[in-house]
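Reviewers of the previous submission asked for a worked example of the structure-prediction workflow described in the proposal, so we include one complete record here. The input consisted solely of the amino acid sequence. No template or homolog information was supplied to the procedure at any stage.
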Amino acid sequence: MNLLVNSIRPRPSRMLLGQMSSVLRLSVLRSSVGLLGLGGLVFDVRALSSKEQAPQDIGIIGVPLNKGQSKSGTRLGPQTIRDAGLIEQLKNIERDVKDYGDIKFPEIEEDVSSMKPLKNSRSLGKATQMISDTVYKIMKEDKRLCMTLGGDHALSVGSVNGHARVNPNMCLLWIDAHADLNTPLSSPSGNLHGMVQSFLVHELEEYMPKIPGFEWIKPCISLKDIVYIGLRDIDPGEKYIMERFGMTGYSIHDVDKLGVKEVLSRALDTVNPKANRPIHLSYDIDSLDPVVSPSTGTPVMGGLTYREGMYIAEVVSDTGLLHAVDIVELNPELGAPREQDTTIMAAMNIVTASVGKLREGHRPSNYEIPKPLY
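From that input alone, the workflow returned the following structure tokens.
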């Protein structure tokens, strides 16, 4: 059963991103002259304005957030991804990288009013505000692509808000098994990681109660600026919102039916038809099948394969429009050691692919085949 609204549209994609071959990425996209190939078409990324074209330098922030859901291990995600070799991998593809370390969140005492309808609201309100300010600084002042390492998905309240303060015309690509679209009053759990979008979008203001700790936030994007891929576990309140406002998203059924190439092409065409808007990629590791990413708090069977997950990250990178990426919901306390290792590597490989690492390998710009000395 197809869970989503507006997921199948008869018109062809104008971006045709999925038709690009690995040979084209190697020979055209990554060339020194800055040419970008999309679906057999070639255009010069230098023609994009500096505001549209993604920054090449990367700023990394760790967000050891675990109060947006019930499992504590997500706090270990940022350092675990670093320890797996993230910085080295990024430097190997010749990216300038600055690690800003982990955000240090203050201990805030919660009370009855800050536990219902949203659990830990005072702590999370302050934490997401700090995340927003940090993302803003990295992107606006330091002119870097912001890579946010989670931490649970509640962090994206801050990361998306911070990005929107820099690029108000941004669009949001949400890769997830879940819609994270509940309001505090429709949420079955009271956990912020399932309500992220409701704090960000204009259309849901009338449904939002006053939440202690979140007085600072104002809606910054529209529901039409968001597209989902990989959904397979949607709550009734989320389904209502998607249907009422005509949101576009693609369930795992759509991926099975159309293929990931067509799904991603249509998704990007929906929110970025002219290929001129900054992209924010929010990537939940539970979008992947639990065989690939078992060490996560809310796994759902039947998810994206590893290859599909990597393809999405690679093609988003190929657009040249990625300005911010979140990788979230890695929980290295869950599962057996082998399952933990599998999930950690999947998370690191996806986030590095999103900023240009190629599965087919990389040639440093100054590399030449050595000649014999005799």
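The first helix runs from residue 22 to 29. We consider this example representative of the routine output the project will generate in years two and three.
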